[in-house]
Amino acid sequence: MNFFDRLRFFFREAAPSLRAQRRVALILLICQGGITVSGAIVRVTGSGLGCVTWPNCHPGSLVPLKGAAPLVHQAIEFGNRLLTFVIAAAAIAAVVAMHMACRRRELKVYAWLNVAGVVLQALIGALSVILELQWWAVALHFLPSMLLVWLAAMLYIRINEPDDGTPQRVFPQAISTLGAIAAAALAVVLATGTMVTGSGVHSGDAGVGMEGRLNVDPQAMAITHAICMYVYLFFTVVTVILIFRHRLDPKIKTAGLVLLAVILMQWGIGVFQYYMHIPRWTVPIHVAFSSIVTACTAILWARGIIRTGGEPASATGSPAGDAKRAAYLENSARKKVTG
């Protein structure tokens, strides 16, 4: 059996363990959040048009060209584009892992949506370059990334739940309702955040002034964004208080406290930005915490309905995956003995 035959046999017969699946999902989650940070670095360094075409960097050239634009701008923008392939690989790995382990449809859907989202984001990125970084095109590029972070976080947290378990509602209806309101408020916070950026000084390209920017008062927009943040924080605080009053699982309480902590850190960064007139170096940090807040909100939301029961010592989280994994390990052991 040659290398390619062995590879095909592995992907057809093997089933990754729960730990391996979680690792793949965690890598995907980090990648989905990480590319938003690299995109922010593109913006604050004015590298958005370091590559002026898509998919090529410059007409007739897939890679940066000497003298076509400042080399550092080309390197930053081209590096950001290359990260798309890293995320695509992570998303495909998640899909492969879910199918190899014979996981339930919910997990496969999360994984496939991440693949579809990467493709969509690549197209939106091309649109933003073609439109020379119009503010709404850049905002349209950022917001789906937050949705993909949410989906990756849901995949990560739900992998450990057994496929043959029974879904059970953990949160009382009041907590579920408040959690939904908080999640909707977060979406508004993220949307208004893109408007603050769209009306501000960081255009994304060193050669672009305020043309193509959102024509509103940046200070008023920042205050609107802050008000939305306070609304989101209020509903989250009330949700966490109710979680403690109902004496739910300690893991849920921890998730709530972690979420409140990262929201407060994000709030502190935002206040600092406002009074210091948005220093460039703070923007990637603020964007990074946007991903962290979104992921933590998704994790707390996922705790509201969990699967219980099922096989307590499951290796893959799926009865079919466990049988497949056991057969693969048995065949592998037999081959080692005989050969």
TrEMBL record:
Its main location: membrane. It is found in: Membrane. One of its GO terms (biological process) is heme A biosynthetic process. Keywords: Cell membrane, Disulfide bond, Heme biosynthesis, Iron, Membrane, Metal-binding, Oxidoreductase, Transmembrane, Transmembrane helix. It comes from the Bacteria. Pfam families: COX15-CtaA. It is a multi-pass membrane protein. The chain crosses the membrane at residues 82-102, 109-130, 136-157, 178-202, 222-244, 256-275, 281-302. One of its GO terms (molecular function) is oxidoreductase activity. The keyword Glycosyltransferase does not apply. GO terms for cellular component: membrane. Pathway: Porphyrin-containing compound metabolism. The keyword DNA repair does not apply. InterPro entries: COX15/CtaA_fam, COX15/CtaA_HemeA_synthase. This is Heme A synthase. It comes from Corynebacterium lizhenjunii. The lineage of its organism: Bacteria, Bacillati, Actinomycetota, Actinomycetes, Mycobacteriales.
